[in-house]
């Protein structure tokens, strides 16, 4: 029996995860992409690729309604996402990239399997990532690079990112102060940002007091938020741009405990782009750390990424 190995140049890749799409592009494999998820939008040129997934949730609704819709689907054992089986059949991917991190955040292997069951004679390699810690983002870069025949470039990318992040870390941790920080991943109901985000806060010279590193983002009561009372509050809702977060911000301001928070009283409340940065564990983890450092230690870091974050002016009324 003769086994024919497929050349990487003949790979046809569908990425169903925005961070993976960014990794694929960053390691020089963007030309292998033939399809993407409905959420993949960076680099900008990927928007020209065929879309292979949809969401059953109307994300234009307010955050509390989105939460109810998500919980309703999960309660009935329904997936939030749907993979387009016809699109996959037409694109004939050799590789599909997805994730097992969160069934709410992006397409899962189960969604892919459901679509593949409808297609005969299509057996792509499934590349699945699951970053929970900062260091595991580098592992995902290696995994994708190895699978797509670009292991050397993936290694170079990791070294470059690690070196630049280490520079931020050395400057941030040299400071005498280490402010307490709270990161909000959902507005209504409240949720703090877990997984790799506490790692990033530490690298930026802060102390995350609302979540545990490496654990899923936890629901957060107002009582716990008031008890922790972080010096700096950073709002980064999952999937929300800065502008979208500003539209929802009144839900925080209208709560009776809001004006009593230290960060609010001292005008240290900030909004960041949760969609483009903190929700995407990929190459732009560097920009994520830089944004946090600029917010946490403005006495050291110039606002070079000012388009990616904003201070909430007069948040104390």
What does this molecule look like?
There is one protein chain. The protein is of the alpha/beta class. It has two domains: 8-130, Nitrogenase molybdenum iron protein domain (Rossmann fold, 3-Layer(aba) Sandwich); 167-311, Nitrogenase molybdenum iron protein domain (Rossmann fold, 3-Layer(aba) Sandwich). Helices cover 38% and strands 14% of the residues. The strands form three sheets. Strands 7, 8, 9, 10, 11 and 12 form a six-stranded mixed β-sheet that branches. Strand 5, helix 4 (109-116) and strand 6 (125-129) form a beta-alpha-beta unit. The protein is globular. Residues 1-5 have low confidence and may be disordered.
Fill in the keyword field for this structure.
317 residues; alpha/beta; Rossmann fold; six-stranded mixed beta sheet; four-stranded parallel beta sheet; 14% strand; globular
Summary, kept brief:
The chain is an alpha/beta fold and 317 residues long. It is built from 13 helices and twelve strands.
Secondary structure topology:
Blueprint: E1 13-15, H1 18-26, E2 33-36, E3 53-55, H2 63-75, E4 81-83, H3 85-91, E5 95-99, H4 109-116, E6 125-129, H5 134-147, H6 151-173, E7 180-186, E8 191-192, H7 197-203, E9 207-208, H8 222-228, E10 232-235, H9 242-248, H10 250-253, H11 262-265, E11 269-272, H12 274-278, H13 285-296, E12 309-311
Parallel strand pairs: 1-2, 1-5, 5-6, 7-9, 7-10, 10-11
Antiparallel strand pairs: 3-4, 7-8, 11-12
Helix pairs in contact: 5-6, 6-13
């Amino acid at each position: 029996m003769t086994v024919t190995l497929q050349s990487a140049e003949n790979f046809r890749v569908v990425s169903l995860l925005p961070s993976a799409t960014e990794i694929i592009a960053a390691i020089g494999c963007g030309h292998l992409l033939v399809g993407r998820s409905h959420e993949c939008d960076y680099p900008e040129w990927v928007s020209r690729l065929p879309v292979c997934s949809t969401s059953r949730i109307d994300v234009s609704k307010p955050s509390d309604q989105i939460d109810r819709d998500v919980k309703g689907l999960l309660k009935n054992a329904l997936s939030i996402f749907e993979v387009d089986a016809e699109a996959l059949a037409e694109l004939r991917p050799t590789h599909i990239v997805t994730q097992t991190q969160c069934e709410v955040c992006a397409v899962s292997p189960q969604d892919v399997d459901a679509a593949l069951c409808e297609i005969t004679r299509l057996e792509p390699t499934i590349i699945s990532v699951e970053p929970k810690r900062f260091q595991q983002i580098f592992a995902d870069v290696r995994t994708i690079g190895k699978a797509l025949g670009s292991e050397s470039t993936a290694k170079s990318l990791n070294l470059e990112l690690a070196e630049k992040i280490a520079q931020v870390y050395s400057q941030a941790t040299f400071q005498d102060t280490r402010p307490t920080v709270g990161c909000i991943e959902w507005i209504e109901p409240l949720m703090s940002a877990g997984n790799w985000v506490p790692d990033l806060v530490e690298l930026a010279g802060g102390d995350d007091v609302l979540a545990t590193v490496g654990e899923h983002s936890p629901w957060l009561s107002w009582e716990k938020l008031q008890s922790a009372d972080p010096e700096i509050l950073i709002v980064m809702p999952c999937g929300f741009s800065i502008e979208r977060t500003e539209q929802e911000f009144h839900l925080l301001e209208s709560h009776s405990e809001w004006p009593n928070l230290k960060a609010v009283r001292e005008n240290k409340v900030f909004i960041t782009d949760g969609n483009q940065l903190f929700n995407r564990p990929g190459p732009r983890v560097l920009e994520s750390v830089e944004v946090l450092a600029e917010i946490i230690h403005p006495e050291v870091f110039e606002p070079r990424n000012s388009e990616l974050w904003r201070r909430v002016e007069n948040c104390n009324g």
